Model the fold of this input.
Amino acid sequence: MTSIEELNKKVWYRVFKVLYALGLISVIITTVLICWSDTHAPASYPVGQAPWEIGSSSSLHDLGFVLDKSQPAQQPTPTTPNSLIEFLKQAAPALLIEVLLFEIIRRIFYYVLIGKIFPKA
Done:
């Protein structure tokens, strides 16, 4: 095999391309979801204080339960004003590394099959 055109005629190569694309897309989506959940996580609780402790009135108030009917519960905001910037700071380097690794894998694959890192179409 000397070109990508010859490879495209093979069924196994077309299946490999589809699996490669699905793998890349799933890795990118997973990275975006992880970075998004890291930057948009709710405020943490102090050490030793769990929000589900029944006897702790402050934990119940933090969860939004009102113990005193005259005072409405305030919902804590789970995001900070700069959460998009923080998301981009986390996601951009990870996505860049992932795309580069997938490209290196592709080039190695071409080199093994065709003998060239940058084969002709």
About this structure: The CA atoms of residues 10 and 112 lie 16 Å apart. The mean pLDDT is 78. The two ends are 12 Å apart (CA to CA). Helices lie at 4-8, 11-39, 57-62, 83-113.
